[in-house]
Amino acid sequence: MFDGSNRTTCTSYVYNTTYYKSSRTMEWDLVCDRKWMGALAQTVYMLGVFTGAVWLGGLADKVGRKKVFCWSGLLQLILGVAVAFTPEYYSFLVIRYLYGIFGSAGSYITGFVLTMELVGPSKRTPCGISFQAAFAGGIILVAAWGAIIHDRMLLQVIYGLHGVLLIAHWWVMDESPRWLWMQNRKREAIDIIAKAVRMNGRGLTVDKEYYLSKDKANFAAESTSTTSAGLTDLFKTPNLRKMTLNVCLCWFANSITYYGLSLSSGNLGGNPFLILFLMALVEMPSYITITFLLDKLGRRSITSTLMLAGGICCIVATYLTKGSIESTTVVMFGKLFIAGSFAVIYNYSAELFPTVVRNSAMGLGSMCARLAGASTPIIILFQTFDPKIPAVIFGVISLISGTWVLFLPETNGKAMPQSLQDGENFGRGDTAFSSCLGRNKTHMEDMPPAQQMVPMQTIER
């Protein structure tokens, strides 16, 4: 007679090799009573991202964006290849942790900030959104390589070797002129601007000595706060604190809503590489549309609209039959909305915070997004009471954040703040509701051009 209480431990396993010929799960049998080891590896990676967001974000504000970006890129290359040859589990965890520090926080966040600081207001939208679209393009490439190469070790080596593309930036990309300017390395900043003018073939000249002499008086008052600025400065003054908490909620909500929509699409069967390809491809129309609309409608309104729409999709999907055409359509539209919102919040965050703490602020936002990922397993436990509860929670968080975004100042076409004082004064009193009443003039609009980092404006004398 069959006895359900009599269990025998498996001595070997048979794996489905339709799509994977080898993997870490197969090699180390990360199934059944060892399944937690696979989850732990992902948790350790997230812990690395947490560490990098705090450490490297502040470091880039102190030693420069280019140094942190390029050294992180080199370490990403080394670690990305080394993980393929890791012989045992605990060494694998160490490399995953380090890769989280330098791969996500070091290369990605710092690279984005550097990109945004190298261009003026008119180019921030196409450059920022293109950066996000490249991320989706990378996911498509991951799916393509995975579909072609079925050997785990070779596939990981190829993934890791893509880090070579980052190394060349040491020679082809300049340091952020905004960061140099705030570190009193004015001549270097102006040289970079002059170089950009020459490369663009504008036929203009930049009078370096004029701008150097004109700004000497301003630096004495700024130097103390500039050199000592750090993550804690985001919370010391009321306006910066309000913006920081609002943006942190926005990063958290975007991440958790995206995860909720991913849960709703979990029943999509078939080739996992094809599914991954489609999930990345569906984001592209959002990026293209946003590129054309962001400078016309503004960051605040688009972010709020997309987050509200994504939250609604997340909730509606739970009341539709899983796997149905209707459910799949709602989930796809929800992913499109949230992917667009996530892309905009990168641009929006970089434009809201002053240069001296911009990288720290971006790192803090990224940390909140990872916190959302870590919170989801706890929220999922509520599905034991009702399967709809987790997705409804995710959607409600997005709706709340989408509403609170309306209280952030608009940054479209505005000069980015440089010092902590600029950041505290930036957008004070500017909300979606004050804009409707025509009262949205900000401190930065009143600043004389000399205080808005003159070299970023191409002026011929």
Mean pLDDT: 80
| Domain module tally | 1
Helix and strand element order: HHHHHHHHHHHHHHHHHHHHH
CATH fold topology: Growth Hormone, Chain: A
What level of helicity do the residues show? 55-70%
CATH architecture: Up-down Bundle
The largest β sheet comes out as: none
Question: Over all CA atoms, what is the radius of gyration?
Answer: 24 Å
Tally of extended strands? 0
**Looking at this structure, what is the CATH superfamily?**
MFS general substrate transporter like domains
What does this structure look like?
The chain is an all-alpha fold and 461 residues long. The protein has a single domain, classed as Up-down Bundle (Growth Hormone, Chain: A). 69% of the residues lie in helices and 0% in strands. The chain has 21 helices and no strands. Helix 3 packs antiparallel against helix 4. It is globular, with a radius of gyration of 24 Å. It starts with 23 loop residues before the first helix and ends in a 15-residue tail after the last helix. The C terminus is likely disordered.
